[in-house]
Design goal:
The protein has 489 residues and is mainly alpha-helical. The chain contains 17 helices and no strands. The radius of gyration is 23 Å and the shape is globular.
Length: 489
Amino acid sequence: MAKHTSDHDSNSYKSILKGTSIFGGVQVFQILINIVRGKFVAMFLGPEGMGIASLFTASSNSIVRFSSLGLNLSFVKEIASSKDNEDRLVKVAKVAGRLIQLTGILGALVCALAAPWLSEISFGSDNYAWQFVILAVAVYLIIAGNGKLAILQGLHKVKLLSLASLSGAISGLLFGVPLYYFFGDKGIVPAIVVLALTTYIFYWYGLRRTLPKSNVHVSRRFSSIVTRRMISAGMVLLASTLINTLCTYAINIYIRIYGDLSDVGLFNAANSLTGQYTAVVFTAMALDYFPRLSAVAGDRLKMRTVVDRQMEIVAIIAAPLSLLLIITAPIVIRLLLTSQFLGVTELMRWLGLAILLKAIAYPLGYIAFAKDNRRLFFWLEAVGCNILYLVCSLAFYFKYGLMGLGYGAVAEQAACVVLYAIVNFKVYGYLPSRRAWREIVAGILITGLGFLASLWFQAPAGLIVASVILVIGGIRAFKVLKRLLNIEN
């Protein structure tokens, strides 16, 4: 009975909203910390230093992504599905810990051994090779820290995970900035190491406080089975990431060939801004929703409840957020870029509309992975949606130019929603509830009307009308959320 109550409480509207708001707040705070760090880099190192920092960061992120073998989401799934069985939880955590160590060492070795080559590729000389050797320490710490974060995520320790993330980011900022000041561009890599170390320490401490203490023996057979399952699932995720990266690269090459470098720059600027904006919503969903879904994936009724409630909350929250981006697109461009990029305003508005559709598709996309149907997840996520992304982007750009990339994004996300809905119904017998559909339709209508107002009317009339719709949508969202929170869960 206690277990049932625990599952029920953790998937109530109050719990979902709480988890999403906490993780969303953490993401906002971390984005602000990154902006502050970027400002200090700009002040103390100048444009050249910023370029050096960007290349080191991009290099380490690429090594971390591929050396992690896509295992972090596998850790989340295995831990979440084992947390009601303490002995199994400890065993799975030990297996995960070994994999974390191995992938961390792998990433560090790749970075250290390939240091001369990485320096040549990144900077055109081997002058930075020794800094890549030092960067190997950060690569290990980032991989290990992310692994411990995934275990905390699987345990669904919302407050502890949030505190650890914020504490690590703030400490990294406070200890890292003096390195920029005193050592100039020679302090960039040490600052990255310090940030990775402080974050790792807080995740390590949080996990040590949370995980049950046990000397339970992990048999070779159990370790082999769980390791094989984790790596198998991780490779599917890694393949999906790789295919998405290749599709994005192909789109950029196509734009350069059939357009020009200016279009490439504008497209990536718009993508970068919307990516930062959507990270708040989608990272919060990944951190909070997937562990809850994985924990009940074996029970069809409970899974249906989790997905339905998540889709309701997402539709309610994402609609005003999408409309807010549509309205404030020119302001966001001026603040984070320059007035030279105002040409992407309309493109960003179309991408803002696509955000809502992506938010609706997001909870549906995780079902196959939570159900451990790796083959279906691969064909849906890695192949199906990436092919849609590539085809829609190329076709609409060829026909309509830069704006076509916005049309393509909307078409792609709408197609993904339909694809996920059909496949989940055919395979798992799942369709969103009537209440979930009501919120989805309401969200699309509110965002769509505001979007059309911003296009049809001349500024500032269009923005005024869209703003009125945003206020109405915001009030409605507040009232619906209040009503849902009062429902007996």
